[in-house]
Structure formats: C-alpha cells, structure tokens
Amino acid sequence: MHPIYIVLFFSFILSSLATTIQDQIDQLLKSDQENIVKTLLSSSSSLSRNAIATVDVNWCCRIDPGVEASSRTRQTTFYVVKHGRHKCGYDGCGFLGWSRCTRYCDETWAEMQNGVETYLVYEQRICPNEQLTCCAQHIYVLGHCFSYTEIYNNQQLLAQLNELGIVIPGPSVG
Fold first, then answer.
1. What is the 3-state secondary structure (H, E, C) of 39-58?
2. How many other C-beta atoms can be found within 10 angstroms of the C-beta atom of residue 166?
3. Of 1, 97, 121, 132, which residue is least crowded by CB atoms under 10 Å?
4. Helix (H, G, I), strand (E, B), or coil: what is residue 82?
C-alpha cells in the first residue's frame, strides 16, 4: 500500500475518533461533565471561553478574522542643517594691499523643527464569539477546551472516563 494512503487512512481514523469522543462527552449528564471540568481545572492551564482574551492556546477561530489597518499621527522633532554666508570684516586687497575688500565667512548650524507624521498600525482582529471553537486535538466540556495531552496526563480523569465508557486513544508515538 502506498505511504500517502496509509497517512490519509490514519488521519481519517483519528479525526473520526475525536468526533466520536466529543459526541460521547456531549451525551453525558451535566453532573458528569461538571466532574470532568473540576478534575481538569484542578491540574490544568485551560481557561473558559470568557477568559479567551488573555490566553487562547486551546481555542481556535473557524474563520480568519483578518487584520485591521488604522492610521495614527505622532508629533516629531527633527533637525535641519543650514548653511549661510555673511560679512565678517575687511581685508587688504588690490595693488600692494592698499584697497579694502569685504571678507565673507561661511557658517553652518542646525535648526530644530517640529512636524506631524501619519503612519499605519496593523492590528489582528478578535475572533467573534460565535466563531470560536476548540482547536484540533481538544475536547469541549461546559465552556472549556481541554487538550488530549491534559487528559492523558491526568490518571484520575482517565479512570472517570473509563467508568463512563469513554476510552481516549493513547498519544501517538513518533
């Protein structure tokens, strides 16, 4: 059998297992779901949907909300280098230096100037609440998304799920 077909087969099997596990959890009594959440939250970094603004590790958006560009202005200060010539005295010139000629001097200085600058700021838009969903390899229980890894690492929860007839496949190796 060709390696691509094997990969596609296992991808299909894993995605159907995730749906089956999620369906099984959705069909549990609310008290059983609450016990699962309590067990996971006591040892988990998962957050509820309301706390999504701070950490969104377990939550994904079904759509790409896009990026918003907005213009902003700021006051700037900069220096402009200027150059000028001015009379700075007289020198002897002409035959034997008996005449008087005006002497000019060069001068360079910097002038401070102020200005207003407009620039663009790009900000990621926030995913609308109705488009939030658990990421792949996560299970949704009563407003929380938990990763399979969090479940694998919690022996107490695995025993509870087993008693409820829900078997979580082990983590893949490799």
1. HHHHCCCCCEHHHCCCCCCC
2. 18
3. 1
4. strand
- Return all residues near 98 (Cβ < 8 A) that are at least 6 apart: 92
Q: What is the pLDDT of residue 170?
A: 60
Residues contacting 147, CB < 8 A, separation 6+: 46, 58, 135, 137, 138
Picking from 63, 109, 61, the residue whose alpha carbon sits closest to that of residue 86 is 109
pLDDT per residue over 2-14, tens digit each?
544 444 444 444 4
What six digits make up the tokens of 18? 């995730």
Annotate 100-129 with b (16+ C-beta within 10 A) or e (fewer): eeeeeeeeeeeeeeeeeeeeeeeeeeebee
The pLDDT, as a whole number, for residue 171 is: 57
Let me know: does 61 contact 127? Beta carbons within 8 Å.
yes
Confidence of residue 79 (pLDDT cuts 50, 70, 90): very high
Which residue blocks in the chain are alpha helix, DSSP H? 3-26, 30-42, 148-152, 155-163
Residue 133 near residue 64 (C-beta atoms within 8 A): no
Distance separating alpha carbons of residues 103 and 99, to the nearest angstrom:
13
